Amino acid sequence: MEKILYITANPFDESRSYGMAVGKAFIEQYKATNPEDEVTHIDLYKEYIPSIDADVFQGWGKLQSGNGFDQLSDEEKTKVSRLAELSEQFVQTDKYIFVTPLWNLLFPPVMKAYLDSVAVAGKAFEYTAEGPKGLLSNKKVLHIQASGGIYSHGPSAEKEMGHRYLKTLMGFFGIDDFQGLFVEGHDLAPEKAEEIKANAIARAKDVAVTF
């Protein structure tokens, strides 16, 4: 049995979001193909994802100085505990599916907050004499990204920072098995929007069988 994290960053469900519709098709096919695997959905618009702020830095600082957890303020305890929970869940997972829209050339801010919560030295990576080294080399990732324009290739590709950022960070964690599935161009060609979505759903189901 493998552990799967299905991580979505969209305020809308599959009835309004092309990316979420494709993500749902993927995860349903994956579950049907791998019924023994444990799939956990993290909806970043519903989960508590603390930002790394002054409370977090102060809490971490107290712990690193040798203070007990009971010496932290209530706010520090709540945030530090939740961040530790998220990072531990992440490193204990085998496969990750991220579903995000591309907003203003990047994914929604809540996704960055989540990625900050799991980018923990000593868990996702470590510093060595040769430089940073990823610790999650045995994992794999699929990123489903939806955008009204076309950013996976062509003249706008160099402006795209959502998929590229996620791929770069996962590589920093040591994850080289990284796939992208793009649902794009439906705003450029609204008359083909349903066809674009249907084709992406078909691709997602195919990928799910072998992922």
TrEMBL record:
The UniProt entry, under Pfam families, shows: Flavodoxin_2 (PF02525)
> What does the record's cofactor remark say about binding?
Binds 1 FMN per subunit.
Catalytic activity reported = 2 a quinone + NADH + H(+) = 2 a 1,4-benzosemiquinone + NAD(+); N,N-dimethyl-1,4-phenylenediamine + anthranilate + 2 NAD(+) = 2-(4-dimethylaminophenyl)diazenylbenzoate + 2 NADH + 2 H(+)
Q: Which cofactor does it need?
A: FMN
Gene Ontology molecular-function annotations = oxidoreductase activity
From which domain of life does this come? Answer: Bacteria
Main EC class the enzyme belongs to:
oxidoreductase
InterPro entries, from UniProt? Flavodoxin_fold, Flavoprotein-like_sf, FMN-dep_NADH:Q_OxRdtase_AzoR1, NADH:quinone_OxRdtase_FMN_depd
Please name the SUPFAM superfamilies in this protein's record: Flavoproteins (SSF52218)
Give every Flavodoxin-like fold domain span: 3-205
Q: What residue ranges are annotated as transmembrane?
A: none
* Entry's EC annotation: 1.6.5.-, 1.7.1.17
Keyword Oxidoreductase (UniProt): yes
Record Gene3D superfamilies: 3.40.50.360
Q: Which UniProt keywords apply?
A: Flavoprotein, FMN, NAD, Oxidoreductase
How it assembles, according to the record, is: Homodimer.
PANTHER family in UniProt? FMN-DEPENDENT NADH-AZOREDUCTASE 1 (PTHR43741), FMN-DEPENDENT NADH:QUINONE OXIDOREDUCTASE (PTHR43741:SF7)
- Function of the protein: Quinone reductase that provides resistance to thiol-specific stress caused by electrophilic quinones. Also exhibits azoreductase activity. Catalyzes the reductive cleavage of the azo bond in aromatic azo compounds to the corresponding amines.
Family membership noted in the UniProt record = Belongs to the azoreductase type 1 family.
Entry protein name: FMN dependent NADH:quinone oxidoreductase
Specify the species: Niallia hominis
Q: What is the lineage of its organism?
A: Bacteria, Bacillati, Bacillota, Bacilli, Bacillales
